[in-house]
Design brief:
heterodimer; A: alpha/beta; TIM Barrel; 8-stranded parallel barrel; 8 strands; B: 6-stranded mixed β-sheet; 16 helices
Amino acid sequence: MSNIAKAFEKGKVFIPFVTCGDPDLETTAAVVRAMAAAGADLIELGIPFSDPTAEGPVIQEANVRALSGGVTTDKIFDLVRDLRRDVTVPMVFMTYANVVFSYGSERFISTAAEIGMDGLILPDLPFEEKKEFAPLCAQYGLDLVSLIAPTSEGRISMIAKEAQGFVYCVSSMGVTGVRGSITTDVGAMVRLVKAANPGIPCAVGFGISTPEQAAAMTRVSDGAIVGSAIVKLCAQYGRESAPHVAEYVRQMKAAVSAVNS
Amino acid sequence: MSNGRFGIHGGQYIPETLMNAVLELEEAYNHYKNDPEFNRELTELLNEYAGRPSRLYYARRMTADLGGAKIYLKREDLNHTGAHKINNVLGQVLLAKKMGKTRVIAETGAGQHGVATATAAALMDMECEVFMGKEDTERQALNVYRMRLLGAQVHAVTSGTATLKDAVSETMREWTNRIADTHYVLGSCMGPHPFPTIVRDFQSVISKEIKEQMLEKEGRLPDAVLACVGGGSNAIGAFYNFIGDPSVRLIGCEAAGRGVKTPETAATIATGSLGIFHGMKSYFCQDQYGQIAPVYSISAGLDYPGIGPEHAWLHDTGRAEYVAITDDEAVNAFEYLSRTEGIIPAIESAHAVAYAMTLAPQMGKDKILVINISGRGDKDCVAIARYRGEDLHE
């Protein structure tokens, strides 16, 4: 069983995201350790990309801050090596296909696995293009996470059957970012996933920022993913972000855990 | 792997949210491209509204002056809205209408594709929103006004480098917001399948006409066809019906900007490497970590860090050649064609004219060369005057 699957065994999960290198890698290291200590069940590390077409303004700007600070894929691999000395929470990379491809797909995937990453999320890699990276991920033991969207309908079963790690349920149309309300019937999406693949966990992301939203999404799935709300804290507090992110993760984790009981 | 491959290039590297939209588009296109009624309507729009067929003009003075190959100009600049862009736009907006869409969105660089889309949307009574890099809205203020006059909403894109690539990214983001009633009118032979194929098919009328007109005028095929390449839609349109004729050299002219040895270039084949971006696998200007490079050219329409996947494949197989033309060479050609033939070409098209000025004298007088004049140059006059140190006030 993969580390990601184990993370979902303990109950409802909370998955925070951070853009690596925003504003610098020392801050990212502190933020990730703070997230882990505050109860994060799985952590998404964003490798910045110059042109992130699935992101809203908040994460776009974080990518700009990180890249203009000089962060690179190699420096992020070093960050992970450092984190893995003491952080045991499963971690996945979230980035874009070109970041993996241009590094050399095999070189990227084998390195990520070797330094202790557990999975890879690529929002611009739909089911039809999975073969680009799936065989290498299988070879080196990295879960390649599949996404489903409110428009997926008839595609959900096909995607779920081959899903690894967990299924990332995109809650809303559009790009990442905080939303006042989520109107999609996420429960129906999750039921279609489970009908096709009963063993695969489903976590919901896009638009979630409050404990109430996280609890509501977790009631109909296995966990909640939060990106933009955390990246906003990093934008606001810069190098002092870690304690603020820790407090936020604690609240969100508590809201998600309350759904268990 | 998905359909829509040109060798290793192409594909559908897009968010899951958009997958059903492109699958729906592919299905609709496969149906309508063989539908006689659709084709009759499109041909009527192209002929009666856009003014096709465009002329294949023998450039007598240019031929005599350069002293080599006989030069013909394919006059896409004479189309309604002043460029080849209208060929694709009329096809896509008509297709969107048949699909029951009521709203179209588009990216634009210099504004030619945005103006063409706004035009077709006005004609076919569709809502229209155009995304344009903020820097380009300032460089091409007149085109912003034209789009608004035609009833479109223009959004200035401030993300990234605030140019064409960011306009494409922002239009893709907008499409993920609203798919049910909206078609994305992609302006070049790029992006996820089926766009490179759809755009190529709608632009291939250019080479179909060149072939017929050349057989009529000269009784034979040309020896070379030259076209400028950004994403590559006018070039693929000018090349397509000659791909199976090995005697016809196909030459794409990229924007070298201040030179391919400088960072201020947009010459993808000359300086790029294989990557995955904007929905496709192809060649891109990027750094060793896959971060897309901020590219530069005097021509806003060629100022794009990638190239359509079919061009990437034509390059791989050697069927087409790609050369890089600097700002200086393009501006010289812009002035040369204006003085020699009384035709002001778009600065984009001037890149192809520039290479013809090098190539024609090396070819024998019995050879024939065709330059695709993809657009007219009125839009560029202020910028070229500025390049020459003259400040024009409109």
